Amino acid sequence: MNSGDDIETGPVWTFDIIVADGFVLTEFAAVVDALRIANRVSATPCFRWTCRSRRGGTITSPSSAYVETEAIPGRPEADYLFVVGNRDQDCPDLSLGVVIRRYVDRKATVFLLAEAASRYIKERGDAAGGLSTHWENTAVLRERAGLHDVDHAIASEDGQVVTCAGMGSTLDVVLAVIGRHVSSAVLMTVANIFLHERIRDFGTRQPFGGKTGTGTGDPLLDEAIELMQDNIEEPLSVAQITAHLG
Fold first, then answer.
1. CB 3.0 to 4.6 Å from 39: which of 13, 19, 45, 133, for a disulfide?
2. Each residue of 143-153: pLDDT tens digit?
């Protein structure tokens, strides 16, 4: 499945979207629909995407929706790669270290959503401190891999690789990418069509565990508030909080 049928009269930015059986439909739809609507709103279509998987063919989500895919290329040509999360954090097709390096070597920016981010963080090990995944996955990383320094921002940039919380925040991430290539007016029109009131910054904290993210715009302040929320029953002293934040 791809969007290559439109007549191209200007710069076109290309996206590869990798899915595996069990992919999260919410995240896939956020990527594809945001690009589709941006093309509709723009004077000329400026985005094209191709759905890909390890071996190509039909890929199915847990909600029984399916996607026709092409195999991941040996020499990627896309400007951006999105890897969609999965119901199975241990899905073997999320182990994409070699694939990610190919895209990075070809100057693409890589976005890993939720479980795809978790797999990347796990395989990076101690070198992955400060990267993000969905808050549900952080407990698994702590228990299985002993990784405690996982961030709760909706997205964290590590060079050309961006690890993301996924789910509903996927739309914020895709809109931020779209905003690099279209006018502010077009971007806001796309957001308004989604009834998306505010495009959250990558540093915005995830609302999780019944708590509402602060999203102050100051990462250190957000982290301090998160620490206090995490230790509400046994409060930390100011000295402990500042020591943790450095």
1. 45
2. 776 666 777 89
